[in-house]
Amino acid sequence: EEVTLTKTPVKEQIICSVDLGINTDAVCTIMRADGTVLGRRFIDHPSEKDRMYRTLGRIRRSQREHGSAQTQGRWAYTKRLNTELGKKTAGAIVRYAEENHADVIVFEYLEMQGKISGKKKQKLHLWRKRDIQRRCEHQAHRKGMRISRICAWNTSRLAYDGSGAVTR
After folding, report:
1. I want to staple 149 with a disulfide (CB 3.0 to 4.6 A). Which of 16, 32, 66, 109 is the partner?
2. Which domains occur in the chain, in start order?
3. Strands, E, within the chain: which ranges?
4. How many whole angstroms separate alpha carbon 139 and alpha carbon 111?
């Protein structure tokens, strides 16, 4: 399928910046190239996440009582729930960008290296950041939008308009 991408000059482009999160699925901000914010949307699917975490709790309880041999079906169901959550998030991101006539969707380049340990280990393992970005890329290219990835360094710490550190 041949689709032509937008050829808008850089100074006139509308950008949809996406911050993928662990607790909130995504935060989309529509802005102009000069930094003017036009809109913001928090994308979250709490009922789907609750359903997934409930099945994870059932798996944990079952493995504690019976061992890991009897949980293949529940793991498969949880995996399908997680995949569906990624599809819904990606669709919502591209839909919001299309509603606001965005030319580019910008993601953080999220690469995790090393061993993950601690309380959030399972949450981080189930986080479908790369899958969401890949699905968004395919959907956006079909609609004529470009995709860009930027270094995640300081993106949450510094303000988007260049005024310095964010006070929380």
Report:
1. 109
2. 13-47+93-151 (3.30.420.140)
3. 14-20, 26-32, 37-43, 104-109, 146-151
4. 22
